[in-house]
Amino acid sequence: MRFDRTTRRVALALAAGLLTASALPAVAQDGPKKIRIGVIGAGNIGGTIGTLWVKDGHEVMFASRHPETLAPMIAELGPKAKAGTPEEAVKFGDAVFVAVPYKAYPELSKDLGASLTGKVVLDAGNATQKRDGALYDEVQANGIGATSAKYFPGAKLVRAFNAANYKVFAKAGADGGKDRPGGRMAIPIAGDDTAAVKVAEGLVRDAGFDPVVVGPLKDADKFAMGSSGFGHEATAPELREKLGLGK
Ligand SMILES: NC(=O)c1ccc[n+]([C@@H]2O[C@H](COP(=O)([O-])OP(=O)(O)OC[C@H]3O[C@@H](n4cnc5c(N)ncnc54)[C@H](OP(=O)(O)O)[C@@H]3O)[C@@H](O)[C@H]2O)c1
Predict the structure, then answer these.
(1) Domain assignment of residue 34, yes or no
(2) How far apart are the C-alpha atoms of 37 and 34, rounded to whole Å?
(3) Distance 51 CA to ligand 1 centre (A)
(4) Ligand 1 atom closest to 126 (CA)
(5) Which pLDDT tens digit goes with each residue over 86-141?
(6) 95-98 and 81-84 strand pairing
(7) Domains held by the chain: number
(8) Threshold 0.85, pTM exceeds
């Protein structure tokens, strides 16, 4: 799997999950069922994870504020991949993957907040002091889960795919993660909506990883950037032990 700049650009906006409450668990649990995913931010992380979903058979719309720049990536990924604006990706997706710099959250909230209401949103954003300024301070004060929820108040938010570098995800998730020595890499996730967490678990598996549900959204701090739960390339049992979650 190549993850050059072109391929990474393809993965934009994982926006959206407009799923009914009853449809959510079915989508999450049934491996063969494929959904539409909008990827907001087709950069390093959105491009990488979105590509893994395309390779698993999901339909993915990668979003860019300049979607025409994604054309080479879309061509490379084939008919399951599309490019669109962030607004189009939110509408397209049964679930949405947000993978933009954290400082863009206030703007994204204004532009997309209403259309994200009721959607399953996987949130990979991390706040860094250098890049995100005031948003970093807000996260330090209130926690990453609460801060994301403030900007996307109507969304069924699940923190996911934030806790490692995209190059690690690209390698560990390749070929469904099955050839990884020692077993699949674990992805910590946290969310308040049980059905949305189930959807996220399914999408984590479909990308080639094993989900580890850490707890409600506030527990996303346990694997936030800078925490002791961040940056582990571990299997699910190993990660559960590191996070003190028991067997
Ligand atoms: N890089 C990693 O390894 C990694 C790992 C885990 C989590 N994360 C987190 O994931 C997020 C993205 O990181 P990244 O490394 O993938 O960044 P990146 O490569 O710079 O990509 C970010 C993308 O977001 C889009 N974007 C920027 N501002 C936007 C806005 N206001 N509205 C809509 N789209 C916007 C840009 O697309 P257009 O300019 O085409 O619109 C860009 O392609 C960050 O919060 C980061 O902390 C990164």
Answers:
(1) yes
(2) 9
(3) 15
(4) 47
(5) 999 999 999 999 999 999 999 999 999 999 999 999 999 999 999 999 999 999 99
(6) unpaired
(7) 1
(8) yes
